[in-house]
């Protein structure tokens, strides 16, 4: 802090703590007061649907990207990203895009822009077809904080159904690593790793191997598809691991994490044949006043 600035601390005995910094012009900034927190938008799933006008010739191989841009960072915060050489096969039975993002929380300070560029792979690149190429805006009028919301984005050739939730006083949890530290993962077992909280009745899928076996590196590392989750301060983050075969779920375990403002947490899931360790990093997100001065 520069010379000539001074700080006022406020604590109201209800775990709400705020800091106000004044400079020589008496301009004021707020830091991390719960009432100033920007809402975080959590995307649980994106489903591809027919739009009633254009019928999809299932199955389809889809590539391209879906990205969000918010006030904090105008760069693309990718939710889905596939190249033509690595498309995702979508079927009527499983029409959900395999999301890999966001890489940081999506903050709803001003309306959030979503950019969609999706194509259907043809036999040759010249035969590729545009699936959706549009931009949508998500403002404050869609969905209540702490509740699931479903919204459809209509395109010329398909519709995307977005399942999401807005969270208020939340911190960012980054799943830094997932590793098998004891035993081994069966070669013929698929795997599913999800996170959830009691307040939202939906799983945030971190990894789902589908019909195939779950890949585990020789050193025991499990590469998750998604890794950034938002958790409200008064909630508990639960991370669950399922191992399944053709006969169904063969083992399942879960571990709970209490949110922090910083540092890391370590927890393990014991599935019997192996133990999986998770390391979670915690961080605060920007408030709406972190981006501007007021009181001048």
Automatic annotation (TrEMBL):
InterPro entries: DUF6598, Thaumatin
Start and end residues of each DUF6598 domain: 43-278
PANTHER family for this protein: DUF6598 DOMAIN-CONTAINING PROTEIN, OS07G0486400 PROTEIN
Protein name in UniProt: DUF6598 domain-containing protein
Phylogenetic placement of the source organism: Eukaryota, Viridiplantae, Streptophyta, Embryophyta, Tracheophyta
């Amino acid at each position: 802090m520069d010379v000539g600035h001074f700080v006022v601390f406020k604590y109201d005995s209800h775990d709400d703590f705020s800091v106000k910094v004044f400079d020589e012009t008496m301009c004021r900034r707020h830091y991390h007061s719960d009432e100033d927190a920007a809402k975080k938008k959590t995307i649980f799933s994106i489903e591809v649907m027919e739009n009633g006008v254009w019928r999809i010739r299932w199955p389809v191989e889809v590539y391209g990207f879906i990205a969000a841009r918010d006030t904090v960072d105008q760069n693309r915060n990718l939710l889905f990203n596939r190249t033509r050489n690595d498309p995702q096969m979508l079927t009527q039975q499983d029409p959900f895009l395999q999301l890999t993002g966001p890489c940081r929380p999506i903050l709803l300070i001003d309306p959030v822009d979503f950019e969609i560029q999706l194509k259907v792979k043809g036999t040759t690149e010249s035969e590729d077809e545009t699936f959706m190429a549009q931009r949508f805006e998500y403002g404050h009028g869609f969905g209540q904080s702490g509740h699931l919301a479903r919204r459809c984005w209509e395109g010329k050739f398909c519709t995307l159904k977005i399942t999401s939730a807005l969270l208020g006083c939340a911190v960012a949890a980054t799943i830094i690593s997932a590793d098998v530290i004891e035993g081994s993962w069966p070669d013929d077992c698929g795997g599913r790793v999800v996170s959830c909280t009691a307040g939202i009745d939906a799983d945030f899928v971190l990894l789902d191997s589908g019909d195939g076996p779950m890949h585990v590196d020789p050193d025991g590392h499990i590469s998750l598809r998604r890794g950034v989750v938002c958790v409200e301060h008064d909630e508990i983050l639960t991370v669950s691991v399922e191992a399944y075969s053709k006969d169904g779920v063969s083992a399942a375990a879960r571990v709970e994490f209490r949110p922090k403002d910083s540092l890391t947490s370590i927890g393990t899931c014991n599935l019997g044949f192996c133990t999986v360790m998770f390391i979670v990093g915690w961080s605060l997100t920007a408030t709406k006043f972190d981006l501007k001065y007021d009181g001048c």
